[in-house]
Amino acid sequence: MMGEPGIVARVATWVLFAYFAAGILLNGFSRSRPERHVMTPVTAVLAACAFVVAL
User: Fold this and answer.
1) Which pLDDT band holds residue 4 (cuts at 50, 70, 90)?
2) Which terminus of the chain, N or C, has fewer Cβ atoms within 10 Å?
3) Contact present, 28 and 42 (Cβ < 8 Å)
4) Dihedrals phi, psi of 2, to nearest 5 degrees
């Protein structure tokens, strides 16, 4: 067995949070103005939700 399901879920949640946090930076530095103004806040909300779940 790979490990307890709780540990796998906890690690996966933190990985998802890191993915969204990287998305904030990448969308913020995009050349596309709509992407910067729409997707950066959306990704920030997703990262915040993932962070709350991870805690």
Assistant:
1) confident
2) N
3) no
4) -75, -20
3-state secondary structure 6-40: HHHHHHHHHHHHHHHHHHHHHHHCCCCHHHHHHHH
Question: d(Cα 44, Cα 23) in Å, to the nearest integer?
Answer: 8
Distance of CA 29 to the CA centre of its chain: 16
- Residue 3: what pLDDT? 65
Cα-Cα-Cα-Cα dihedral sign, residues 3, 1, 9, 13: positive
pLDDT confidence of residue 2: 61
Radius of gyration of the chain (CA): 14
